Amino acid sequence: MKVLIAVEDATFGEALADFVVKHQWPPSTDFKVVHVLEPIGIEHLSDVSYLPFLEDVSREAEKVSAALIRHVGLKIRDAFKTTHVEEEVVKGKAREKLLEIAESWPADLVIVGSHGRSGVNRFLLGSVSDAVVSHAPCSVIVIRIPAAKVEESEKEQPSSKPAQMVLRT
To answer: Domains of the chain, with CATH numbers?
Structure first.
């Protein structure tokens, strides 16, 4: 079995890793932990003096992303005493890259997080999880973290609300 784990940030990384380690998987399961770095929109930047700064920001984002997925990968390795965990940081649009990886790897299951946004916020911000659920070539598990919990974690305050799971096949 091949399980693709799409990690957006530390909050989702913890929730996804906790979900994975609390479940049983066949001994030969391969896990791929992925974080997609979205491109920085600089197409309208007329002052090129910002480019070195943006390159520094991009390098730092890559380091942070690598540490994020390394943490998730280590939790899985430790829990299952396995070396069948791959970590990858890719650049591009999250919904497109996750679907590409799910198809080309090929994944048997994708685990992705959802903010639980609705209405205008969902429309304006889009939904990677919806795109993956709708177009993935395999089953998808969506770990839903309420927006309030995400906001609380961004403020570094503990939350009493548990993550919710939605399974769509």
So the answer is: 2-39+47-168 (3.40.50.620)
More confident residue, 126 or 72: 72
| Beta bridge pairs of residue 34 | 6, 88
3-state secondary structure of 117: coil
What would the DSSP string read from start to end of 11-80? HHHHHHHHHHHTS---TT-EEEEEEEEPPP--TT---GGGHHHHHHHHHHHHHHHHHHHHHHHHHHHHHH
Instruction: Identify the burial level of 169 via C-beta atoms within 10 angstroms of its C-beta, where 0-12 means exposed, 13-18 middle and 19 or more buried.
Output: exposed
Q: What is the pLDDT of residues 10-24, one digit of tens each?
A: 999 999 999 999 999
Dihedral through CA 86, CA 132, CA 36, CA 102, nearest 10? 30
Q: Which residues pair with 113 in a beta bridge?
A: 143
Judge contact between 9 and 69, C-beta under 8 A: no
Average pLDDT over residues 44-60: 71
pTM: 0.80
Q: Which amino acid type is present at position 97?
A: K
* Burial status of residue 55 (CB atoms within 10 A of its CB: 0-12, 13-18, 19 or more): exposed
Q: How far apart are CA 1 and CA 109, in angstroms?
A: 8
